[in-house]
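@channel sequence for tomorrow's demo:
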Amino acid sequence: MKKLFLLKMFSLAFCLLVHSLALGQNVANLNCPNPAGGCDTIGIEQKISPWRVGGFIGPAVAFCGKWSSTFNSDKYRDKSLFNGIGFHAGLNADYFFNVKKKKQLKFGVGAVAGLQMFFLRNDLDTFLDQIIAESGSNRAVIRKGSSEDHYLAVGPVLSYAFGKKPRSPFIEASVRGGLFRTTPAAIFVYDEATSNNIYSVTATDKRYHAGLLATLGLFFPSKKGLWSWGVEAAGFRTKVNYIFPGATIYSYQRKHGGFTAGLAFRRNFVRDVPVPKAPTPPLICEAPDLELMINGKSVKGMIFSTLDSSKADSINISWKSRTILDSTKSETFTARLHQLNGGMDNVIAQVVCQKETKMAWPAAYLNPVTGRPVEGQYYVTVQSQQISTCASCISEPSTTGFAVQSPDTVKVKVPSCFKQCFLEVYAYKKVKVKRVKYGKSPTSCVGCICPVDTVSKTISQYHLLGTVKRDDCDASKLDLNSEISNIKIPSWATTVYTSVETVVAGECEGLPQGKNKINYSAPVKKGKAGIFKRAYQKK
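structure tokens (generated this afternoon):
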């Protein structure tokens, strides 16, 4: 009867232990994925920014007012320029008023800044040789430099995509007006012997003129649609001023323009825009139904004997969901099998974030003859995790277990004894301190308490010299002089004190249990302590 009562009490204690361990586990599982975002009503959507930048580079040809003046040197034209092939480079920034993804026609405004340079043509040398020959100089020096243009222009931009997809090619046209700073070609011819000017052309103070720039390009977007590459043609028109210095200064103003075609790019930007989002209902996770079966029978909370030699079928660990799922959410399970043996809690098998609803018993923990679990206490925990588009949850763990033990094993508690001594060695040093004396002042306000004097006072100041800790010791058998031999005693100390605190627990040969503290003192001579005697506190 007594053995049956002890068996029931052990079973109850084991179940309580298993339940407490299961609840003590961390519910949040770091190995399980969590959905991106959150169940709020504000979402972030990437939209194309209305701003866009671009660039261009390519060869350029100057235009001198009319076609014959530019390309036919046999006819009359202004010989002061002689602009030939050059290069053109520019950067632009545009703002579009409608940047919807599927909109094909877009309108905006933008600014472009650039520079261009035209190199001098070879027929300039023929012209200058003729001028030098007519002057009769045989030591003529020639200095020449190319013309340059810098400009800043603003105006409307029109873009049309051939399709509604992000990678659809598009054409772009713009007409911009602004300010041009033009430096004409510089030509200086003079006689080295006499330093007389033979022929010269130079810029005037008026270099800034209004101008017009028109562009037309075809572009092909990249895979993500942010970068676009293509070809672009441009033409410009402005004015230029220059002079012929000499005995008489001749000032001229003429039309100045040109064409260019080359490679160009455009770069769009993406920005994060808050958008309203329908709230998502929260998820509710319920603990799964857990079952342990041997030979088709449940073994939850049971205790088995290691002496049972009957063969057993495989141990079935299975669980079942208690949630009704739909297409918007999924459910996985995390199950762990624990063994409690020798005070250690070891996970001997686990299934983490899987859709399986069963777990195999590890073969290393089965008796190879009977197929039954080896000695130990076992418990299983199972948690359910649900994931939807923007939310997740993890249920409380379901837990159950059983035990396999040797029934005749009796563990006898061996009486233990704990004895410990703690020694604190200290001394008192006489030091002088000053103390402020207060009293009523006859000169200040009536009844005021003020410092009236400073007096000296000698006090004994406590100094801790060291500590000693001994385990399994008997305070009555301690040799205090030997115990504190490694503690240095200062030269000013005349008396050294030692407090001995003892702690006794358990059955220790008749010694009383608890804490006890006794103080001892010894005179000091030449830095060494004499014989210790018990010191009593004055009452």
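heads up for whoever presents: The longest strand covers residues 250-276.
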